[in-house]
Amino acid sequence: VNINIINLFEETEESSSGLELLLPATSELVAGIFAFSIVFFFVWKWALPILSETLDQRANAIEGQISEAKNTKWEADKTKQKYDNLVSNADDQVKKILDEGKATAEKLKEGILDEARKEASDIVSKARSDSEAEKERISSEIKSEVADLSLAISEKVVSSMSKKDQKKLINEFIKDMESSD
């Protein structure tokens, strides 16, 4: 196999120069240029406009998709901002409602405490007046009992006194009554 390659290489060197190997024959060159020109003309005339139109349509479709994506992104950002505002407003409203609830609860608490204080004060006042009334009643009963006892003792003392002493005691009592008026 090595011998065949070497023989082929030697024959090539002997038959032509290096430049002739690279360039085709003139007839082949003219035929190739003519065939290329015909193919180029048909491609230029029919295939290139169709290809150009297809590429333009594809470019327009891509630009439309990009524009649509930008619009969708813009709408999504707008919607997101709207919902962020709603959430922020909802947080503010919740805080406001909680604050109002706390204030209302505090007012109710103060009202209930004031009412309880008033009721307690009324109960204490009533208890004091009831106590005073009971004290007066008991004092009156004690005075009545003391008066009854004094009368009974006086009757016993007077009954043991002589008539002359009794008259003297009555006269002194009348004088005391007259002088106190």
From TrEMBL:
Entry annotated with the keyword ATP-binding: no
Location relative to the cell: Endomembrane system; Membrane
Residue stretches spanning the membrane: 29-48
InterPro entries: ATP_synth_B-like_membr_sf (IPR028987), ATP_synth_b/b'su_bac/chlpt (IPR002146), ATP_synth_F0_bsu_bac (IPR005864), ATP_synthase_B_chain (IPR050059)
UniProt key word Cell membrane: yes
One example GO MF annotation: proton-transporting ATPase activity, rotational mechanism
Main localization (coarse): membrane
Membrane topology annotation: Single-pass membrane protein
Region called Disordered, residue ranges: 118-139
One GO term of the biological process aspect: proton motive force-driven ATP synthesis
GO-annotated cellular components: endomembrane system; proton-transporting ATP synthase complex
Entry keywords, A to Z: ATP synthesis, Cell membrane, CF(0), Hydrogen ion transport, Ion transport, Membrane, Transmembrane, Transmembrane helix, Transport
Role, per record: F(1)F(0) ATP synthase produces ATP from ADP in the presence of a proton or sodium gradient. F-type ATPases consist of two structural domains, F(1) containing the extramembraneous catalytic core and F(0) containing the membrane proton channel, linked together by a central stalk and a peripheral stalk. During catalysis, ATP synthesis in the catalytic domain of F(1) is coupled via a rotary mechanism of the central stalk subunits to proton translocation.
Family as reported in the entry's similarity comment: Belongs to the ATPase B chain family.
Matching NCBIfam families: ATP_synt_b (TIGR01144)
Protein name: ATP synthase F0 subunit B
The species this protein was found in: marine metagenome
